[in-house]
Amino acid sequence: MFRFPAVMTCIQVTVKRRTRIIIQNMNTYKAFCVSLLLTFMFLPSTFGKFCTGSQQHTNLSLVTQLYLSQCNISSLRESDFKLYPNLQTLDLSYNLLEEVDFSVFQFNSLLENLDISHNKIFNIDCRSLTFIKGIKSLIMSHNNFKTTYLCQEFGSLTKLEHLGLSSKMIGKNDFANIALLELKSIFLDLKELQGYYPGSLRSIKTEKLHIILPQQLFITIFSFFNDVFTTTRTLEISQFMCTDCPSNLLSSIAKTSNVTTLILSDITMPWNHMALVLGGFWKSSVKHLVIHDLTIIENFEYESIDVSEGSLESFHIENVILLVFEYSGDHPLNIFSEMFVRKMTLSNAELTYFVCPIYPSIFQSLNLANNGITDGVFQQCRSLPVLQYLNLHNNKLEKLQSLSSMTSTLDFLQHLDVSFNSLHYDQNGHCAWSENLVFLNLSKNKLTDSVFKCLPNSIEILDLSRNQVKSVSKDLKMLTALKEINLALNQLSNIPDCSYIGGNLMVLNIDSNVIFSPSAEFLQSCRNVEKVSALNNKFVCNCEIRAFVSSVQVFKGEMVGWPASYKCEHPEDFRGIILKDFHLSEVSCNIYLLIGIIISSVLVVILLVFFTCKYFDIPWYLKMIFQWLRRKHKVKQENLPEIQRTKHFHGFISYSQKDGSWVRNFLLPNLEKDDGAIRLCLHERDFVPGKAIIDNIICCIEKSFKSIFILSPNFLQSEWCHYELCFAEHSLFGKNSDNLILILLEPIPQYLIPKKYSKLKALMKQRTYLEWPKEKAKQGLFWANLRGAIQINLPVHEGEFENETDFNNH
Description:
Layout: E1 11-15, E2 19-23, H1 29-41, H2 56-60, E3 63-67, E4 89-91, E5 99-100, E6 113-115, E7 123-124, E8 137-139, E9 162-166, E10 169-170, E11 183-189, E12 195-196, E13 206-212, H3 221-231, E14 234-241, H4 249-253, E15 261-270, H5 271-282, E16 288-297, E17 314-322, E18 343-347, E19 365-367, E20 389-391, H6 400-407, E21 415-417, E22 439-441, E23 461-463, E24 484-486, E25 507-509, H7 520-525, E26 531-533, E27 539-540, H8 543-553, E28 558-559, E29 568-570, H9 586-589, H10 591-616, H11 618-637, H12 640-646, E30 649-654, H13 660-671, E31 680-681, H14 683-686, H15 693-702, E32 704-711, H16 713-717, H17 719-736, E33 740-744, H18 758-766, E34 770-771, H19 776-790, H20 800-809
Parallel strand pairs: 3-4, 4-6, 5-7, 6-8, 8-9, 9-11, 10-12, 11-13, 13-14, 14-15, 15-16, 16-17, 17-18, 18-19, 19-20, 20-21, 21-22, 22-23, 23-24, 24-25, 25-26, 26-28, 27-29, 30-31, 30-32, 32-33, 33-34
Antiparallel strand pairs: 1-2, 1-3
Helix pairs in contact: 11-19, 15-17
């Protein structure tokens, strides 16, 4: 059974379609199963349905990968994996297993990968191997096996490709039972190896052999290495610490080896021993030498070795740790510039400089990434005639102009990577690049817009990502060969106009800039571009974005990630909306259309108001109401006691005799009522008999609150009307000109008014007068306005009503 600690490190279950579930804090295997079932009960239906309790076995049958590493498991039993018939990968590493019976996997016929490394296993049941016949990878290293003996049943594992073992002793026929198996890789953990029978490893057939060397050398170490170097064509040796080992241990053996690819990882030795190793492998069967994690101890002096001829084609050194810092004479690492090898890598080797070879080199590829190299490297270096690939990634280069002059002597240089440096261009001086340079990686530097003035004309692929470029200048148009440009992670505020770029551009990357409102004209200028990527920009959803979306719809090339990955960032109300689904009305975006609609609406309203006023004659009503309100206001300001003492009539009526019928039929009936509230003075009724007419006129005007003139063409022909107007003008106008009321009975053209009525003409221009409406509907407002103008409380004088009665009777 499984035995777990109180808190388990981790349990991972991987089901089909790469869905992973992590379950923690279980104390027993039973609790693990229950929790696993509960997880599947609520697992989202990537499988089509929600899982339920009645589907437990079906759910567990979906599990293909199970990770039980570091769970303190001490034993296994047959029923442990019965519920996982589709299990393909099982990791039981770093547990407490001591014995393994593979019959526990009798229900897991699809099991292909089994890792039981880093346990305490000292014995396996060979007969149970028949239950894992389909196994492809079996890792049993880092256990307590005393011998590497593989029993006869291992020969039946015909699908086995990767095998991991560990042992303290390698006997004569330990690998004989797998001699017919053609494995892809064998891993041997032999750090505790104490003895080796010569020839044992020669029976192995594998494409790659990875060995962790013993910490202490044994008597048959030379035989061991001879067998190792003849067993495989790809050999990896790890954790080799040579402080007092024979200096020719590896170099002498290399002469008879069959290895073409040698990998040395986690190696510790003095520099003079390392130089002998390099010299020994230089003229061996090894074509590709890779050294990872080299630690130099004890001495660090320049060693001259013959590297002029040999079979080595590529040499790779990565992660050099120097524990010795003193040397005399030439720098010990100068030996690398002297090597005649086509591909050289010195990565993370603490280099501050790389010497230009003294003699013409055959370097075709040179990788000096992750060092401290400065601008002086390869200046005026003419001994690299065939160099095509140069990688100076993550160094300390600063001047772009110095970099260009460095390449000018590298006639065949095609690929240059100077990313992750501190390059800048100050526009001082001319940039001279290699004429054959087609790939240039300038990413992660300090370059600004000026960089476009210092680029090679032959470039086809240009990477300017992670810089400080804000705009693309027309200088880029000179790069007629440019096919691909990467401007991601800069400060571009708009997509560059492709008309500024050479006509052969095929790929444009502007991801992660500060593009808010890309213009529609951009894609129109990029008709020949095959792929555009503008992901991770903070688009502002406004009217401009509509035009951009429309241009994308008709774009013939590929817009990477469109439409799902292009979303609104601003304003807040639209955040997260896909640009394709963002819509605004045409009116809100077309200013000319909006102005047209507003002007049209205003015109319609004006015309509507005009015709309404015209039809209902609203101005006339408004004018009458205004006059009525004005009169009311004036009446309140009058000196009421003075008026009541001196005035007998509300109004003196001046009119032509020819308009008398209108006065009698309309004016008097609507103003004078039986209650005597308004009293009018008419010459037919109220003039004193025997008294001069002029005296009567003057007297009546003085005794009247208002003087009302009925204006018409007839009025202008009456001499008496002219006199009455003159008297009223002279007697009232100077005192209170508001006591004069003009009623226009009929329209009077200005040109018909005689010169003697010049005052009347002026009054009609300056004063508001009442117009008699022909329409009956308006006449009520007319009388109300007129009554309001003259109505005031006056005392009744003796004899007035009698005169009025006589006039009415007459």
